[in-house]
Specification:
The chain is mainly α. 78% of the residues lie in helices and 2% in strands. The chain has 2 domains: 1-51, no CATH class; 53-165, MetI-like fold (Orthogonal Bundle). Helix 4 (53-86) packs across helix 8 and helix 5 (90-104) crosses helix 8.
Length: 165
């Protein structure tokens, strides 16, 4: 790399230092605070957390839901971004509005809409019964699958737009 290229790379240093300051420093301070006790440094809180079966189940479920949510959002976001990349004119505007508009809705509004869809007499169960795929309503509302679908819906624009860009 030339001397000029080295100098241009130096322009990124202030921005990277700022990002390190606002992201890394709070995390380091939080980690340091979490091991401090009145007697000094101790990892007893972490030992207690990881030795409790209930906490491990909750942690595992949280990581599983996060992984499935990310995977579902990616499976939907990547093809959507590719279609948006090929779209031109008014279709591109339609796609961009369809991605940005849901971001203006509150999470509570989205959660209420999903609860209407997933409840026992909701649209999804009614449609499945009408098609003859199920005989009685399936409990979906408070299931992990509904949580993954709802979370993927909330985070989808945050995955589509960077892939599209």
């Amino acid at each position: 790399m030339s001397a000029r290229g080295d100098r241009i790379g130096l322009l990124a240093v202030p921005g990277l230092a700022y990002l390190a300051l606002i992201y890394a420093l709070p995390l380091v301070l939080l980690l340091a605070k979490s091991v401090q006790t009145a007697e000094g440094l101790s990892f007893s809180q972490y030992t207690a957390f990881f030795s409790d079966e209930y906490n491990l189940r909750v942690l595992w479920r949280t990581l599983r839901v996060a992984a499935f949510t990310t995977l579902l959002a990616l499976v939907i976001a990547y093809p959507t971004a590719m279609v948006m990349n090929r779209a031109r004119g008014p279709w591109l505007t339609v796609f961009l509005v369809a991605m940005v508009l849901p971001m203006s809705l509150g999470v509570v509004v989205k959660a209420f809409a999903w609860s209407i869809l997933f409840r026992a007499n909701g649209a999804l169960n009614s449609t499945l019964q009408w098609l003859g795929l199920i005989e009685k309503p399936v409990r979906m509302l408070f299931a992990e699958t509904a949580l993954v679908i709802g979370a993927a819906n909330v985070f989808l624009p945050f995955m589509v737009l960077p892939i599209y860009a």
